[in-house]
């Protein structure tokens, strides 16, 4: 299915927003999260703030390891 043909009802969006809030624990309360709609595209979205520690906790361990190795390599090169 083409993404442009992907339609989600407002009710489904609200359900997904509740699920997102439960998983990512935004700083805003569920009552403060507002479902917005882009006037041009009709895309529904929400703006919120997430703690970096929560995002990092959801990143797979392997990716974190790769990033840490990459940062260590950059530090080594800069200090040489």
Descriptive labels:
5% strand, elongated, 80 residues, mainly alpha
Describe the structure.
- The chain has 80 residues and is mainly alpha-helical.
- It has helices spanning 10-24, 52-58, 61-79; strands at 36-37, 44-45.
- The protein is built from three helices and two strands; from the N terminus they run αββαα.
- Strands 1-2 form a two-stranded antiparallel ribbon.
Q: How is the topology of this model organized?
A:
Blueprint: H1 10-24, E1 36-37, E2 44-45, H2 52-58, H3 61-79
Antiparallel strand pairs: 1-2
Helical percent range?
Answer: 40-55%
Order of adjacent strands in the largest pleated sheet: 1-2
Rg calc: 18 Å
What is the arithmetic mean of pLDDT? 80
- The low-confidence runs, each spanning 5 or more residues with pLDDT under 50, are none
Helix-strand string: HEEHH
CA(first)-CA(last) distance = 51 Å
The oligomeric status of these chains comes to single chain
- The proportion of residues in beta strands is 5-15%
Largest sheet: 2 strands, antiparallel
Gross morphology is: elongated
Number of DSSP helical runs? 3
The counted number of beta strands is 2
Which structural class do the helices and strands define?
mainly alpha
Task: Give the gist of this structure.
This protein is mainly alpha-helical and 80 residues long. The chain has helices spanning 10-24, 52-58, 61-79; strands at residues 36-37, 44-45.
């Amino acid at each position: 299915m083409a993404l442009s043909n992907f339609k989600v009802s407002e009710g489904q969006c609200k359900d997904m927003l509740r699920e997102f809030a439960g998983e990512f624990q935004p700083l805003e309360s569920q009552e403060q999260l507002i479902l917005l709609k882009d006037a041009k595209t009709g895309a529904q979205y929400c703006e919120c703030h997430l703690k970096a520690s929560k995002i990092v906790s959801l990143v797979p361990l392997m990716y974190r390891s790769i990033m840490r190795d990459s940062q260590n390599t950059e530090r080594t090169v800069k200090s040489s």
